[in-house]
Amino acid sequence: MSVKAKFQNLMDTQYSRPAGVLGWFIGEKMIRQHKPETLWTIEQLKLEDSEQVLEIGCGAGYAMKQIASLNGSHNVTGLDLSETLLQSAAVRNKKAIRQKQMSLVHGRVEEMPFPDEKFTAVFSIHSVYFWEDLFKSLKEIERVLTPGGTVLITLCDGKDGEDWDTIKKMIRSELLPMMEQLKFMDLRVLEGPVSRGYHTVAVVGVKSSSR
Predict the structure, then answer these.
(1) For residues 186 and 139, what is the distance between their CA atoms, to the nearest angstrom?
(2) Rounded Cα distance, 104 and 167, in Å
(3) Are 198 and 159 spatial neighbours (Cβ–Cβ below 8 Å)?
(4) 4-30 confidence digits (pLDDT tens)
(5) Closest to 195 (Cα-Cα) out of 126, 124, 128
(6) N or C terminus: which one in the chain shows less Cβ crowding within 10 Å?
(7) Are 18 and 26 in contact (CB under 8 A)?
């Protein structure tokens, strides 16, 4: 394997599961890079008072910190595969964690360690690309959501005016049909901000109140 290929493999691994000093650096870099779509995503959640919110792929905890600072007494849980980023999130949110307004959990979206119907809102920002089993992940999200709860999945589908056909096809042919199969209602694709040339969208659905 060439040096370039080894470096690319290292970076791909670090972005999916950051570790060590390089992982910490990447976590802080992602906060800076993703700030516009992070703030937009939180706005689209339209949180009401005292919501139980789960972020999948919470990274270094910037989005969670923003939600915890909102008026409304929300309780926020962050799930991530990276122990390095969870440590960063813990430092960034030590006050909210101490006040039991926030908790951090190491785990996989395909097998979440939460009881049924725990959260009123679930969201992720740029983590869906790394989910190993899309249907199993969505089924887990449906399980942990309360009836009437919202899921919002933010991702990029193009850059500098060029569409990413693979991502667009995944949304159209996999993500939305799977969510429909799981009885999510009010399915929509929202147009988000352009950040560093990347075009942001969010797939939104509401868990059915009836079984």
Answers:
(1) 17
(2) 29
(3) yes
(4) 343 334 334 444 455 444 554 565 566
(5) 126
(6) C
(7) yes
As a whole number of angstroms, the distance between CA 149 and CA 146 comes to: 5
> Could you tell me which CATH number the domain at 3-206 has?
3.40.50.150
Cα–Cα distance for residue pair 31/58, rounded to 1 Å:
10
Structure tokens given for 91: 């430092």
Question: How far is residue 52 CA from its own chain's centroid?
Answer: 15
Token look-up 């670090």 returns: 14
The two beta strands, 145-159 and 198-206, are: antiparallel
| Structural tokens at position 25 | 């650096």
d(CA 105, CA 23): 18
Helices 20-33 and 35-45: crossing angle in degrees, nearest 10, is: 70
Report the distance separating Cα 88 and Cα 24, nearest Å.
7
Tokens of residue 206, six digits: 């509401």
Residue ranges of the domains in the chain?
3-206
CB atoms near residue 153 (< 10 Å) = 26
Tokens of 189: 């694709």
